[in-house]
Specification:
Blueprint lengths: L4 H45 L11 H17 L3 H16 L2 H8 L5 H11 L4 H15 L4 H15 L4 H8 L4 E7 L3 E7 L2 H18 L8 H15 L5 H6 L5
Antiparallel strand pairs: 1-2
Helix pairs in contact: 1-2, 1-3, 1-4, 2-3, 3-4, 5-7, 6-7, 9-10
C-alpha cells in the first residue's frame, strides 16, 4: 500500500532530524579535535623545557618541538603543513581567547565554519573588546549562514575596534606575503596576500588580458585563460596567445 502524504512527510522529517543529529555530532567532534590539538601543542613546550639545545642547532628546543608538532599533525590528519598551522592557531584561540565560541561549538549550536569566522574576525580585535565582540557575534551565529555571519562580524569588528581603518590597514600591510602550496596531480597553488587595491588591480589586469584573448579560434575557457595569462605575465612579462603557447615559444 502506498504511504499517505502525511506518512511521507513524517518520514522526510525524520530524515532531516537524522541529518541535524549528524551535523551536531560533527560540531562536537570538531570541538574535541580542537581541544586535543591544543593539548598536544602545550605538551611540546613542556618537553622542550627539559631538553637541552643541541650544539650548532639553528633552533632552540621550543622551536624544534613546535616544528615537530606541526609536521606530525599534518601527517596524522593528512593535510598540508600550512593547514596544520592554521588548525593549531584556531585551536589555541578557541581554548584561550574565545571560550564562548568553543562552548557553542561543543553544544552543536554552531558549525566549525561559523567558529572559524568568529576566530578570524576576532584576531584583530583588541583583548579588552574581544569578550563583547564574541558575545554579540554569537547572538545570531546559530541562525545564519557562515558567509552572512562573516559579514555581520566584520561590521561589528569595525565598530568595536578603537583604531581607525587606516591605522589597522597600515599594520596589516606589513603582513603581506605570497604562499606556495603543492597540490595533487602535479599541480600547485600560489596565493598573494596584499593590499586590496593592489590585488584587485592585479586581478583586473589578468582578467582583461584573458578577455582580450577570447575568440572563435580560442579553445580555452576564461578561467584557463586567466591562469595562463597570470603565469605568462609572471614568467615572461606578457601573455602569450594560444598559437605561441602550443609551439612553446616564449617572449624574449
Amino acid at each position: 500500500m502506498k504511504p499517505s502524504f502525511i506518512e511521507e512527510q513524517e518520514a522526510l522529517g525524520e530524515h532531516f532530524e537524522a541529518i541535524a543529529e549528524a551535523e551536531l555530532a560533527i560540531a562536537v567532534a570538531f570541538a574535541r579535535r580542537a581541544e586535543l590539538v591544543e593539548v598536544g601543542r602545550r605538551f611540546g613546550p613542556a618537553r622542550a623545557n627539559a631538553a637541552a639545545r643541541l650544539p650548532g642547532s639553528r633552533w632552540d628546543a621550543a622551536e624544534v618541538a613546535e616544528r615537530e608538532f606541526v609536521s606530525e599533525l599534518a601527517c596524522t590528519i593528512r593535510v598540508p603543513r600550512r593547514t596544520a598551522e592554521n588548525l593549531i592557531a584556531e585551536s589555541r584561540a578557541l581554548a584561550g581567547e574565545l571560550p564562548a565560541t568553543r562552548a557553542a561549538l561543543e553544544a552543536g549550536e554552531i558549525s566549525y565554519q561559523h567558529a572559524k569566522v568568529v576566530i578570524n574576525q576576532a584576531w584583530s580585535v583588541p583583548d579588552e573588546a574581544k569578550a563583547a565582540f564574541e558575545a554579540e557575534v554569537l547572538r545570531s551565529a546559530g541562525t545564519v549562514t557562515a558567509s552572512k555571519l562573516k559579514y555581520r562580524a566584520r561590521l561589528l569588528r569595525e565598530r568595536l575596534h578603537p583604531e581607525t581603518i587606516r591605522a589597522r590597514h597600515q599594520k596589516s600591510v606589513r603582513d603581506r606575503a605570497m604562499f606556495f602550496e603543492p597540490e595533487p596531480d602535479g599541480m600547485a597553488s600560489l596565493t598573494l596576500y596584499d593590499s586590496a587595491e593592489k590585488v584587485a588591480g592585479a586581478y583586473e589586469r589578468v582578467m582583461l588580458a584573458a578577455l582580450s584573448l577570447q575568440g572563435p579560434e580560442e579553445e580555452r575557457t576564461l578561467m584557463q585563460l586567466e591562469a595562463d595569462v597570470f603565469a605568462d605575465i609572471i614568467l615572461d612579462g606578457s601573455p602569450r596567445p594560444a598559437s605561441a603557447r602550443a609551439s612553446g615559444v616564449r617572449s624574449t
